Fold this protein.
Amino acid sequence: MTTPALTIYGIAASRAVRPLWVAEELSLPYTHEPVPYLNAGARTPEMLALNPNGHIPVLKDARPEGDVIVWESMACALYLARVHGKADGVDISPASAAEEADALRWSFWAVTELEKDALTVLMHRVVMPAEQRKADLADAAERRLAVPLGVMERHLAAQQAKGQSWLAADRFTVADVCVGAVAAWALPARHLMASLPLTADWIQRCQARPAQQALRVKARSGR
Ligand SMILES: N[C@@H](CCC(=O)N[C@@H](CS)C(=O)NCC(=O)O)C(=O)O
């Protein structure tokens, strides 16, 4: 058996889920190296040689012209779709200039407008031990999130009016992966989500993708 050209470094219970999810959706052959981020797992000499920031995920694409190394989770996800997708209007890769633009703008939007506050909600509502959670931090993050998530709610309503049930098209695309992976962190903001029915429904549909469910099983196993 030949070794796959693609290697994704990083456990599924991390931002590595973004490129892992794209690879699964595209049915790409790849090697998964479940490097943890705790205990400086991303800061070994081998990992620092790949990503001097000391973070996961990292993507390696062994190409005839030489290895291509990508870090930053959104870049890894978008690279896989751009370079390894078919762009046929069937798979999740952008199939037109408009879809490419949507994948880029919504992915950048997710990391700049959503990620920090969504992570605060997740950590201080669910992940941290109860005695360390700070409700006031989560409350403030939820108030701020109401603004960008309101933008998303209105966008999804406009998409629905065009007969498109996903973020960038009438099919699930890499834009849904990139934004859905971040927006899901805000699900514990229950009151906020109750006020955003289209957004809550879209996040649940992203989470219900078989690729996402398989990765959640993997995440629970620690890989
Ligand atoms: N902006 C980066 C953030 C990467 C990041 O912070 N990854 C975490 C895991 S989700 C990590 O590697 N933390 C280990 C550390 O910072 O030591 C990305 O999206 O890839």
In short: The longest strand covers residues 58-63. The first helix runs from residue 17 to 25. Residues 14-15, 37, 42, 54-57, 72-73 surround glutathione (CB under 6 Å). Residues 74 and 108 are 8 Å apart (CA to CA).
